[in-house]
Write a structure and sequence with these properties.
Helix content is 85%, strand content 0%. The protein has four helices and no strands.
Length: 186
């Protein structure tokens, strides 16, 4: 029996030594494959990350370009509107000042006013929103009614119509959202 135990123990010892070698080698090989797979996956991930970063940079660049174009256009349109608003208010003020100081208007004065008004109205129709255009026309209609003696001149009424028009202009060009009004006593 002792020979059987010796043989059994020799077999077990040789198997466990070989088992230890196999276990060591399989562990080492597993780590090697895992590291290799990790490097491959990491490289794929890094490449995908670079692609996404490049795509995002391009999208940001495109967006900045579109935004700049839109802002430039808005700036140009606002500048044009301001120029038109200045041009259309100047003849009105000139007409009122002349009427106030001379107490009468000549046909030449009215003809010059009408030329400037028609030109300004056409430009206003192209650039201004409908509410600004409507208030401008209400002011002009009032002035024509006065010059044609259809209604009496009332400076307060003229001023109120003018301020409503100017309030619409301010809103249109984005300066202020409130309405201007005269709070004096004249």
């Amino acid at each position: 029996m002792s020979a059987a135990w010796q043989t059994a123990s020799a077999v077990l010892l040789s198997l466990s030594g070989g088992g230890a070698v196999v276990l060591f080698l399989s562990s080492w090989l597993g780590k090697l494959w895992a590291n290799r797979l990790m490097r491959i996956e990491s490289a794929k991930h890094d490449e995908r990350l670079r692609e996404l970063e490049a795509k995002l940079k391009q999208q940001v660049s495109d967006f900045e370009m579109r935004l700049k174009t839109e802002l430039d256009l808005k700036f140009d349109v606002t500048r044009q509107k301001i120029e038109v608003y200045r041009r259309i208010t100047s003849p009105i003020l000139d007409l009122v000042v002349e009427a106030h100081h001379s107490q009468a208007m000549t046909g030449e004065t009215l003809l010059a006013f009408e030329r400037e008004r028609l030109d300004g109205t056409a430009q206003l129709a192209m650039l201004a929103p409908a509410d600004v255009f409507d208030e401008y026309n209400a002011l002009i209609d009032y002035l024509w009614d006065v010059t044609e003696s259809k209604r009496p001149w009332n400076f307060q009424e003229f001023r109120d119509k003018g301020l409503v028009f100017l309030s619409m202009v301010r809103k249109d060009i984005g300066l202020h959202s409130d309405s201007v009004r005269y709070t004096g006593e004249r």
